[in-house]
Amino acid sequence: MKDEPLGEEARFKNAKLAYYRGDFSYAQGLLDVLKAATTELVANDALKLSVFITSNLGLDSIIEPMILFANADLLLFQNKLNEAVITLDSITTLFPAHQLTDDLLFIKAEIALKKQNINEAVVLLEEVRSSYSYDLLADDAIFKLAEIYQYDLKEIEKAKLCYEQIILNYKDSLYVNEARKRFRQLRGDVVN
Questions:
Q1: What mean pLDDT comes out for the span 27-47?
Q2: Closest by CA position to 146, among listed 75, 169, 135
Q3: Helix axes 40-57, 24-34, angle to 10 degrees
């Protein structure tokens, strides 16, 4: 079932396992093949992980922060949320101002959301929004923040500002169409 969706999913899981083990070059090789996968979900996941590995290993010769981040990602996958936060905090302590900082904040926000700690998630996502607006995760963080403001906190004006920021500043974002739709809806436009 090599070229079937099940085979592609198995290869992606092998790539993810290599990533968790810290074997980034092997993971990258598997991901390069999967980026052309016929299954859109597998191809998108492979592309996302490949870009993450490339962007965080290509600029820095120090591999330890990536190994720690992969360990934290594995702990998150295993739903060991407190241990994942401790591991992420150790990266910040050992490697201050590392290029992974926006990723650390974003994944800590996801953990806070899993723990139902909405206010902590908002603080973390707002930090990504304000301090890392140029980075890859900026539009993800802003869209997630908009959803929290809209659905959890019922702060419609803040949600509109986030959606508007995506529309105006992140024109190539995958979220731009959905942000436009939600912005119009919150503004009160009649949507056909």
A1: 86
A2: 169
A3: 140
